[in-house]
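Issue 218. Parser rejects a valid record. Input:
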Amino acid sequence: MASVRLIIDQSNRYALRTTYPTSIYFRVTVVGEAEPEDAPSPPTIVMLIDSSGSMLGSKLEAAKRAAINVIDSLPEGSYVAVYTFSTKVERLGACHVGDAACVESLKQAILKVEAEGSTAMYAALIKAIREFKRVGAGGAEAPMRLFLLTDGQPTDVTEHSRYIEIAKELRMLGIELMIIGLGEDYNESLLALMLEYARGVLEHVTDPEKIPDLMSRYAREASSVVVRGAVLRVTTDPRNKVEVYGRVQRILSNGVVVELGDLVEGEPVRVYGKVVVHPQFVVGEAKVAEVRVEAGGAVLAVGAVTVEFTDNLRLVREGSRPEISNEAMAVAGLISGNLEVAKTTLAYVGDASLKKTIAAAVAAGSAGDTKTLTSIKTKTLSGKLGE
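Output the parser choked on:
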């Protein structure tokens, strides 16, 4: 079984005894690591490619190259199905990678796709779920990914509640959603809403030529999953309060459970938060929160946020790491949309990948680029910083 590396950094190693609550910020980094004898399971991927009239030209040509690149990126044994959607939804085919004749036939079908008609995105999503169920979604060991590429508004079903139902079912089946929004006309609010209920990310792309490499990267990540459906459980004394800036799955009486999703070998997932500790009157070390990584009912790693309470102000100052508290506040700002907080903390952020994410968000906010901001928020919620 794969192992997990758990790293906990905190803003304060020491805290003063006080009659007031004390806030301890933390950064949790989780990294999946494969054991030599455990090769990652080949993934199951369903691709939905928008082939409506607005995709005519370079956008559709790039999308077709991307679909073929995904197939070529997958290891033998992977299952891949490809659909296009315009006025109607068409299943181009499905193959197990390694079946050369089937794969070649699927590639030829992709190359023949033409742009025309409207955007039946809801119908395409329904068919994708049926495809996953047909190959055993919900219980298989294989990582499951739904790739959705679109440049426009859905024209078949527009009620947001229907898409929320789709997203909830994807989450229940263990399917992660990777959405590429191409250009400036797609509905980022609808897609972001889906990602509040399903695990996944939204990529905002303005240059079609970037699509093939982007989709290939996500396909390679799906092929390197070492832990499926991981969660982070942060618990504390009921008198304390835990806040976590991530995709919270469940609020407990003494903490929270946060979705990490599938862990890719060697790829860090970062979650920030804070523990508000009730007043302490005793000198000495205290565990103020326990942190666990779990998957499939098993505990994969355990750590703790510990603080030593003291009357020594010098120790408190020397043991302080303000970059952690600033990073946590910046992430909270990115998720809530408070870019002023993110901008203010930027100079004090230590993590290079997070600094890159904040700078991109601030620039997008200044330009009124809501699509880029939405994309950054979905990735921040998933713990994917700096991508």
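Fixed in the parser; the record now loads. The chain has two domains: 3-37+236-381, 44-223.
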